[in-house]
Amino acid sequence: MNTVKIRTELSREYIRPGRQTVYLMVEIMTGESKADGERLPVNIGFVLDRSGSMAGEKLAYTKQAVSYAVGHLRPVDFASLTVYDNAVETLLEAQHIVSKDAFKGTVSRIFPGGCTNLSGGLIAGYREVMKHNKPEQLNRVLLLTDGLANEGITDKAVLCNKVKQMKKTGVTVTTLGVGDDFDEDLLTAMAEVSGGNYYFIENSDEIPQIFAKELQALLSVVAQNVKLQFSSSPSCAVTKVWGYQPAGDRILSIHLPDLFSCDSKFILLEMQLHSETEGNQPLGKLTLSYDEAGEDLKCVTCDIDLSVQVTDDESMLATPDKPEVLVQLELSRSAEIKEEAIRLADSGDVKGAASLLHKQKNAIQDAMNVAFEEDCIELQGEYEKLSEAMISLERNEYDPIMRKKMSYQSYQRRRSQK
């Protein structure tokens, strides 16, 4: 079985006595997964928007994508097919994938209809997954839409609470938004509270590629129920966590999405330290726990005791901050700043949004001056994204597609996805 590895790095090797701010970078990595014949079975509920706006290429590519996914499932896997417009219809109840051609044939006969009862489709698809919900398999709803939830439950908080309850039963939800009319804030929030993934599909012809990406991840999961816990020492307080919503105070818990083959997740913590004496200063204990995605679902736990050196020695204090941590810090800040720029632009302050992106672009440039060569590629990519968004804002070209791009970039950064 593949082993999950954890690596930690503090922004500073040495600190002065007194109050200091340091950053802790945690990287969680996996290697290549086991062979397909040994992977966990999957239990997938395909939930597809067939409202009138899906007519044409969107629906055609969606059918192609689902057929592709079904073609890669095995007889031990379960799949169901639910479609929705103003009404909800389960075309195929949850079943073992014995006759792929029969399943694909039903997919090919989906036709567009009326409005968008997203909640009804989601709940019906969830019920199908629950029929064969077992801990020794991967249980997921894949929800695709190109429009707003305008039938059934339309309140964002209520929908997110529904998805949160689904997560408690072991079912995660991946959301896929197509085009420029869907609510990206809703689909992002649903994926995040569920532990699934969110995808922005700008062009219809990207639908098969995105489905393939999600399926590849689903079929190569190596760790589930992943949790990072940090127990602070009395002299250390965590004041911020980038990318994930933590719970607790002195004992901080962060729940992470499933880890798949060749995966890498970064978590960044801001810490306030207080020490009056020189020497080795304990910061606390970091604990990573997860269930191996094997037949026995073995629970694995590993602990790391963290500390920093406190000194008055100026030569030691002159040691530069760790470039890799600074890189992750600036990339994390970029995600936050894009979200803030979206809020400003939504309120009409497009110039203020452009100014924020301009400042962060300069910060990324500064980080490139001290970063290792391998990190400069990622920084350069972020610099170009910030530049593109800034220029569009300066030209007053803020529109639904641009908003979705910025929001999706922020989401990908928070989840360490590229």
Helical residues, percent: 25-40%
**Beta-strand proportion:** 25-35%
| Average pLDDT | 92
**Biggest sheet layout:** 6 strands, mixed
The protein's oligomeric status is single chain
Number of strand segments: 16
Q: For the terminal residues, how far apart are their CA atoms?
A: 26 Å
Which outline best applies?
globular
SSE series: EEEEHEEHHEHEHEHEEEEEEEHHHHH
The radius of gyration over CA amounts to 23 Å
Query: Helical region count?
Result: 11
Question: Unreliable stretches, pLDDT < 50, 5 or more residues?
Answer: none
Structural class: alpha/beta
Q: How would you describe what is shown here?
A:
The chain has 418 residues and is an alpha/beta fold. Helices cover 38% and strands 31% of the residues. It is built from eleven helices and 16 strands. The protein has helices at 57-71, 100-108, 118-130, 156-168, 184-194, 207-218, 314-317, 323-346, 350-370, 373-394, 400-414, and strands at 5-10, 14-15, 18-29, 42-49, 78-84, 88-96, 138-145, 171-178, 198-201, 221-232, 236-242, 251-256, 259-260, 264-275, 279-292, 299-310. Strands 2, 10, 12, 13, 15 and 16 form a six-stranded mixed β-sheet that branches. α1 packs parallel to α6 (207-218), α8 (323-346) runs parallel beside α10 (373-394) and α8 (323-346) runs antiparallel to α11 (400-414). The protein is globular. The two termini are 26 Å apart. The model has no long low-confidence stretch (mean pLDDT 92).
Please outline what is shown here:
By secondary structure, this protein is α/β, with parallel strands linked by helices.
